[in-house]
Design a protein that fits this description.
The chain has 146 residues and is α+β, with helices and mostly antiparallel strands. It is built from 3 helices and 10 strands; from the N terminus they run αβββββαβββββα. The protein is globular and about 55 Å long. The model has no long low-confidence stretch (mean pLDDT 89).
Length: 146
Amino acid sequence: MQIEVKIDRSCTEPKVIIVTDKITDEINHLMKKLSDDSPQMLSGFKDDMLEIIDESDIISVYACSGKVFAITEKGEYTLRLKLYEIEERLDKNYFVRISNSEIINLRKVKSFDLSFTGTICVKLSNDTVTYVSRRRVGKVKKILGI
């Protein structure tokens, strides 16, 4: 993607123009981010207290028994959003959905073990081990450049 900034002293409000040959998921995501006025922060409950969760602290987010949880460096939080809503809020450059029930932070991955047939074993920074579902292996390999 090319980015161009023009300085015009007569301009009173910033204006963004997207020039493209077709509408892609990347363009839709960009338009949504640019038009969204509210800050996209996450909050979760821990010990009956609501806390703001810093995106960079998140190790993984998973759904279990109808609830959604975020594992961070500070502990586990219960979230009130659905997994797909959280996925929309998280930075797509660092967070990847590895199964129908889990999203991981690529910055918190220690290693990927590709020796398993049809799946990938992921070791996270908190020494948790999880697996990429078979249907998402291709997407994860593409992200990893393999």
